[in-house]
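User: I'll paste a sequence; please echo it back and then give the predicted structure.

Assistant: Echoing your sequence first, then the prediction.
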Amino acid sequence: MATRIASSLLKVVKTNSRCLLGGCQQQRYVMSAVCTPGQWDLVSAVCIQRPPVISAEKTNIEHQFASLMSRLELDKSLLSDHELRIKADEAASKKHQESLEETERGGRLTAFDLEDEWEAETKLFSPASRVTEADKTNDRHSVERKLDQTLVLLVKHQLGDKAHWLFPQGPYNQGESMRQAAERVLTSLCGNDIQATFLGNAPCGFYQYQYPPASGMGTGAKVFFFKAWYQQGNVVPNKQSTSDFLWVTKDELSEYCPKSYLKSIKRFLANL
């Protein structure tokens, strides 16, 4: 578990502040040093997110609005160069239909010929499926699933005699910043192959829990969350620290995380 802070205890004082987005109330945590024996362990955790790869499916109202805007744009738009060429070709065809020789017709590329070529090319194009093999098999170890949604990484931590699904987390070491601790934790738990970009030096969330009284480990742990964007690479879990990992959506978190933990992390998880 986390190393004990023996010199001083960081006291967390909650003050209310207004959230700029949405007008919601949010708790701001201010830390001040108190000269009392250390009883809490400081822990850094990483909320690593894989952003959507493709756009989400349109809703019915989005389809209707897109159709309306397309009709309005067509009604108010001027003719394009291709449409002007079609009109010119039609006029030329009617004017010279009888007098035009076969050789001349064969050597002239009209707008209608271009449309036939474009249509043939379009038929050869086949867009990739929005549903991947990982979606079909519900492989939650793969990052190649739910391409239109944000995924977050969970790892299975052994806390005491129970295993819990949490964000990658680990103890703060003396002499490093909390962000440095989060970067070290990600590498130590998930391997060197995975690459992520951390978003700032300040934590995006906070959670605390108490140890069982009989554990003799102190009061509990204070967890500071740092957000990071997934870039590339695979998770290679450290079997000594974590037994498994999953890539899940925000809606799937409730299947794994404890309720109190879920309540804390949903404050900074946005549906992107």
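Residues 14 and 29 are 5 Å apart (CA to CA). The first strand starts at residue 9 and ends at 18.
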